[in-house]
Amino acid sequence: MGAQGGENARKGGVSAYREQFRFPRLALRPAEAAQALGISERTLRKWMKDEGLPYFRVDGAVCIPTHPLHEWILDRTRSQHSIDDTVDEILGSF
What we know:
Elements: H1 3-21, E1 27-28, H2 30-37, H3 41-50, E2 56-58, E3 61-65, H4 66-92
Antiparallel strand pairs: 1-3, 2-3
Helix pairs in contact: 2-3
């Protein structure tokens, strides 16, 4: 790391360091996850409680891990497509 990079990381803290090396986010706060999904935070928390949306707590702060969130979304999408295909198949026989 050059002198400039080290200086920027010291001045900007973790976010500047992350930006410098483009570290992926490992987890999102509920408001960030809700915004990324285009839903309300209330809906997100309902999904956490009722739909198995993955989350964990660190010192009381709720975190949504990004990789498991992505997998959860893919699983829900696959399930919905499977249901849609089955309905189409049943309705197509009439």
